[in-house]
Structure formats: structure tokens, C-alpha cells
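Side project, low priority. Logging it here so it doesn't get lost.
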Amino acid sequence: MIAGLVLLVFVRFSTANIPNYTEHSFTQVVDHFNAAPIVTFQQRYLLTEKYWTQGVSHALFFYTGNEGPIDQFWDNSGFVFEAATHFKALVVFGEHRYYGQSLPFGNQSFDAGKVHYLTMDQAIADYAVLIQFLQSKYKFTRTVVFGGSYGGQLSTYMRFKYPFIVDGALAASAPIFQVAGIVSGELFWNGVTVDYNNSNSECPVKVRQGFKRLLDLDKQNSTGWANISKAFNLCDPINSTDDVNHLIGWIMNAFASLAMADYPYPTDFLGHLPAYPIDVCTVSTVHSHILDILTIRCLVVTS
């Protein structure tokens, strides 16, 4: 079964045939690792039986939800459904605790003394319990978990920690080796640079020039900060080097977000993006003035 899934990675990705879902809730305990006191919350999950036939189908495809509302991942994970058509699988997307509607303490979930239940161990325990509940209802005999980025980490850890529940895991772009310290943290940014370079080799050169110009302006203190504020049309003006560094962080994240969502089809995952958004960005970037490059004006497609 897993070998078949690996082969399916080469099938055309598409969002055209994403099915509708039914929304459900499941009663989870807030703390899976201490006996008392027992406090519960409602975990949201999405489900489709479109490909499932009771008594004929045998597999559950379970998406281990990331840090966000689970419907966003449903709408942008077409590969799971393409694979499900081949294996006639039941498809379920579980929402991560403390995100979306799965708030253990409602509006007080992030208060001191309550947020410490937001851990990976607790999250994958949620998924393990939910899968066992679903198995008792649907009687599937195989479970494969899916996830991307942080969600891919969760899928991998589930296979390690709950091999008696999870038969296989497919983790896309999961930073497992970086988190474990096996590879350098710079590897991610090297990958982002490669994406832009593959689109247009002039783009990384000009972006580096833009960052250098930004740092040079910072050295001019108030005069430079005023120029930066004007160039970026900031609501709150730059008043310190800390402000400049904060702005640089936002700029880096903008470039990284495009790299992470550089899909061959339009998405609304990290913004309203066209197909191959990096190609759209680099066309504008290489024809911009040095500081204009970093204003990311090419990203108007996300607004």
C-alpha cells in the first residue's frame, strides 16, 4: 500500500476535484498524560465518505492538522483526495488543538496556566485517540497519516510513537532533520533561494542588493529610518535598528511564504496566489529599483 502511495506522488496535483466535507466534533481530554483532573474539549474534524464503501474499503487517510483552521488545509491538500480515489479511502482531517475551533479553554485558551497543554505530544495523542474512535465505527484495517511542514512532523512522529495505530506516514516538506539538529537551520533558506534562482537567476542577486541597501540606510539612523518608512509606506515609522530588524523579518517571511506556496495551480492557502507565484514575483523583482525590490510590490496578488 505504501509503495503505491509513493508512486502517486508523481500524479498531477489539482484542486479541481476537492470534495465537500461534513464537520464533526470529538470529545478530547485536555491532558492525556495525567489522570486528574479530567478536563475535556471539543476537537473539530472534517470527513468525507466520497471514496469509502463500507465493507469494501479498508483504509483511512488521516491528515494531521497544522497550526491553523483545518478547513484551510482541506481546501489546499488535493493530493490526499487524489490518492483516496485510488485506494477508496475514508478521508479525515483532524484540527490541531488550540487552533481554529478546537480551543480547549475557549477564549481563555492562551492564558497563562492554560497554554502549556499546547504541545506536539498532546496533539498527536489527540489524533491517536480520534483515529481509534473512527476505527471502531468504520472498521478500516489500515491507517495512513498525511501532513505538510509542521503537520508532516506530526505525521512522522505518529508513525514512530503509535505504530500500532498508524501503518504509514507521508510527510511533505517536514523539517524533521532541522528540528533534530541533524542539518543546519540555514538549509531552509538555501532552498528558498534556489526556488527564486530557478525562476530567474537575477532575482537573488537583486534581493541581496536590496537587503544591503536596507542595512546601509539603518546605519544613517533617523535619516535612513525616515527613508525606509517612506519607501515601505509604513503606518508606523521606523525609529530604531530593532524596528529595521523586525521589518527584515517580515520581508524574509514574504519571500519564504511564496516559496512554500509555489504550487502549479492557484491557491488561497497563504493568500490569494496565482499558479507558480514565484515566477510572477521574479518578473517584477528583476525590473525594480534596489529598495523597491524589498517592498514586495510584486506580491499585490496576495492582497
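Brief comment: Residues 157 and 163 are 10 Å apart (CA to CA).
Revisit when time allows.
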